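User: Run a structure prediction on this.
Assistant: Running it now.
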Amino acid sequence: MTGTVWHCNVAASLDGKIARPDGGVDDWLAAEYPAEDFGFGAFLAGTDAILMGRATHDAIRRLGDWPYPGKPTVVVTTRPLPDPPPAVEARSGDMAGVAAELEGRGHRRVWIAGGGRVIRSMIAIGKFDVLEMALIPTVLGEGIPLFPPGTGGLDLRSVKCEAKAKGALHLVYERAA
């Protein structure tokens, strides 16, 4: 791949949920399946910038200190961000414009951190190159879907499937040529 690589790294339940309806992940993900077991530290180190939706930003902020200090982060929102951490900025408008701005800054790998609406929008504009996920062997039933209704089609090819502790899988897909 050349240019900016748009890389979604996410955890999902077997029924395709990325969080409980309130955005929570503590009871089913964080304690039982540490992100480092899925190589998250190395992934984050190789990421130039982060793109996320407002709900994802707010859920992260509720957990305490900002976990990505100094990492340029764009939060897609129509509302101002109260007291954003350094290097975190709000953007509104069309997603193609936001993506073009990040590309124009020279970012080579942008983490599409979620949520589902941001993922859906990035697929719609053709800016979704890699899906890396921790597939967690639990069914949440209700929750925030990885691919919400209205998500367009996307063909992917498997490049990695690794079994992890407690029945989880570390999966990596790339956009099919």
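The chain has a mean pLDDT of 93.
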